[in-house]
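Re: the request from the purification team.
They wanted to know what the chain is likely to look like in 3D before they choose a buffer screen. I agreed to run a prediction and write the result into the notebook, where they can find it.
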Amino acid sequence: MEAFADQIRQRVHARYPLVYVQSLEEQRVEEQLAGLAEEEGYTLHTWSCTQGFDGRGQGADPLQALDEISGCEEKAIFLMRDYHPFIGAPGQTNPQICRRLRDLAQELASKSVTVVFVSPAALVRVPEELADDIVVLDFPLPALAELGSILDRQTSNLRSRVHLDAATRDRFLRSLLGLTAKTAERAIRRAIVNDGRLDDADIVLVQEEKRQVIRRTGVLEYYPAEETIQDIGGLDLLKGWLRSRGRAFTEEARRHDLPWPRGLALIGVQGCGKSLVAKSIASLWQLPLLRFDVGRVFGGLVGESEANIRTAINVSEALSPCILWIDELDKAFAGLRSYQGDSGTQMRVFGSFITWLQEKQRPVFVAATANNPQELPPELLRRGRIDETFFVDLPSQPEREEIFRVHLGKQRQDPARFDIRRLSEATEGFSGAEIEQIVIDARFLAFFEGTQAETEHLAAQIAGDPERDIEPFVPLSSMMSEQIEELRAWSVGRARRASRQEPGSIPEMPAGGRRAIDL
C-alpha cells in the first residue's frame, strides 16, 4: 500500500492529468486519495454517472463532467467511478469521450488537477488515442497489517469470543491474504456467526471463502494441499532438491540474505508424477497452492486475455508466499512463434508472463509441467526466470517397487501381502499412473470375484488372463516409444535428472501376445 501511495503522490505532484486504477475497492482507493489530499492541500471530488459530483446529482453526464473538471482552478483530485464504459475498449472507443480526454489532458497541463479513474475493469491496452496521456496503476489487495486492523475493528466488541494467540492470529490473517477488505470483513463475521467464537478452526471457513473468490477469477483455482512428498515413489534427486529449499521462505532465510526460490520446470514422460510433485510442494513447504489454467487466459473480447493474465499475477502475488502450479505449459504456448491468428494476443500474454517471471518481487514459486519441451519457447526455461529444469523419466525397477507400495497403501492394502518384486519386474516401461491403475483394476477384479486383492489379481491386469477375458496391459511407452526416445535425447545437457536410478526401458509388446510374468 505504501508503494501505491508513493506512486499516486508522485503523479499528482508531477501534474499527471489522467490516472487509471484497476480495483473493486472504491472505498479503499478513495481513502488513500483522501489522505493524500489532506496532507498535500488538495480538494478531493468524487463522481459517478448516477450521482454526479460529490453526490449532488450535478454533472452526471460523462461528457459534461469532463467540461466541469476543465474549469477547475483549485488544487484538486477528481475520483471518477466506473468511467471505463464511456472510454470503450481498443478499437471500440467512444470518439467524443477520447477526444475530450485528450483535450482535457492538455488543458490540465498547467494546473494542479489530476483525474483518477477507478474501475474493476482492467485497462490493459490503453486506447491509442490516450496512450500518451493516461497512466495505469495497480491497487494492491490488503496486506497483513491492514488485515490485522480489519480483524481488530470487526472484533472490537467481541473480545470474549476471540480465542487467537499470537501464532494462531498470524495464521488466521495469512489465510485472509488475497481477499478484498470487504470480503475479509464478511469472512470474519461469518466465522464468528458460525459458532459464536473466533479461533483456529475458523481458518477452514476463510479458505472456503478464498476458494470462491479465486474461482471467480476464471483462471486460478485454489487447491487444498492433500498430496505429500511421501505419495511420490522414486524421484530421489528431485525430492532432495525440494527438501533443501523447504526453509527458503522463512525469516531465518531472509536474515541470511537468501533469495526466494523462483520456480521449477518438470519435463518428461506422461504419467510419471510431474503434476503430483507440483502439488506435493505445497504440503512440503506448508504454502497455499494455486492452479493456473493458462488456457483460460485467452478470451474473445478485446483486451480480455491481457486482463486475465494481470488478474492471475495480482492474485497470486497477494497470496504470496504461495505455489503457482501451471500444468501442461507446452500446450498453452504451443506454436507461439508461428501463430498470428489472434492479432498478437498470445505473444503479448506470453511477454507479460515471462517478464513477470523475470522481475517478480513477491515469493511466488512457479511449478510448471510440460510433456513436450520442443513446443516451449526457449526463453521460458532460462535461468533467472526459473531455478531449475528436471527431466522425469519412466521409473526404474526399484522405483516401481516403491510406487506399488505407495498405491497399495493408498488403497488400504497391506503391501507385505503382495510379491512387490515380481510385480515391479513385470511392469518394465510402466509409468506411475499406469501402476496406480493396475492396482485399482486389480481391486475391482477381486471385488467382482468376492475376495480380497492378491498378487494374482495384479498379475492378471498386467499380463492378461484368457480365462478371465483380460487382455495384456499395453503401457504408453510401447505406443509412444519414438517420442520418449526423443524426449530423452532432448534432456541430455538441458535438464537435471529427477532420479538417481537408471530409468525403465521401453518394452516391445508382441502383437496379440501375453507379457511374460513369473509367478
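For the purification team: The two ends are 67 Å apart (CA to CA).
Please add any questions underneath this entry.
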